[in-house]
Amino acid sequence: xxxxxxxxxxxxxxxxxxxxxxxxxxxxxxxxxxxxxxxxxxxxxxxxxxxxxxxxxxxxxxxxxxxxxxxxxxxxxxxxxxxxxxxxxxxxxxxxxxxxxxxxxxxxxxxxxxxxxxxxxxxxxxxxxxxxxxxxxxxxxxxxxxxxxxxxxxxxxxxxxxxxxxxxxxxxxxxxxxxxxxxxxxxxxxxxxxxxxxxxxxxxxxxxxxxxxxxxxxxxxxxxxxxxxxxxxxxxxxxxxxxxxxxxxxxxxxxxxxxxxxxxxxxxxxxxxxxxxxxxxxxxxxxxxxxxxxxxxxx
Length: 299
Known about the structure:
The structure is a single chain. The chain is an alpha/beta fold. It has a single domain (2-170, 189-217, 268-282), classed as Rossmann fold. Helices cover 40% and strands 18% of the residues. The protein has helices at residues 10-21, 33-40, 79-98, 135-148, 174-179, 192-204, 223-234, 244-249, 255-262, 270-275, 284-287, 289-298; strands at residues 2-6, 25-30, 47-50, 67-70, 106-112, 123-124, 157-163, 165-167, 182-183, 186-187, 189-191, 212-215, 221-222, 241-242, 266-267. A seven-stranded parallel sheet has the order 3-2-1-4-5-7-12, sandwiched between helices. A two-stranded parallel sheet has the order 6-15. Helix 1 (10-21) crosses helix 6 (192-204). The longest helix has 20 residues, at 79-98.
């Protein structure tokens, strides 16, 4: 299988490495020289190409592929930039590949469980209607429509991988939870290696064409309980806690941040499990082990 990963960043690099190790032909696409260096360092067999999804002319250099994974990032910037990258960038990639003599068979777009909005701590899965509540999550929802519906006009089957909160190397953020204060709510998480592994599995098993799949581990966890577990594992005192109302009452939050705090849900991975994916890190207890060991060794 030949795969082009557009936006070969935190997840894309891990995915490219897994695919290359499995013997697939992989191209990683980045728009900056520094990004290209990181792609080139993945594996000698991974080709690094410089292109920008928001600049259609640059996409002509991309090789033909069986599958395109669109994992580009807006870099934490606002909704306008997000729309340019996730919606218009995805459309540019689809048009470039869809007009070729031999278009890809599949597209995977990496989205977010943020599109579900608030469910007051209730469970959500692929059957739950999405209800994005912020400008940025509405952009993500629009991009999902592009991936699942517009791609079919080019004869390409789209899949949406809705990632929960990503963590792993360089993104453990232990200090946030062991120092506190920790605001109440649920954490829905997935380790970087499983986020990449799930996409690899969907491609290799050839499943979930034309569908969204929630990519989250086995155990959504209360933030206070997670912080207490992490503190105990690190051998430090439990951090101070506060309720959502107390955090909002502090008065230093933007409207968007306040909405995020009020948003609460638990994401189910029942579909991903039923499709056959086996997690490397089924819960935070295994996923955070390396970070805990590194912390205890450093103090």
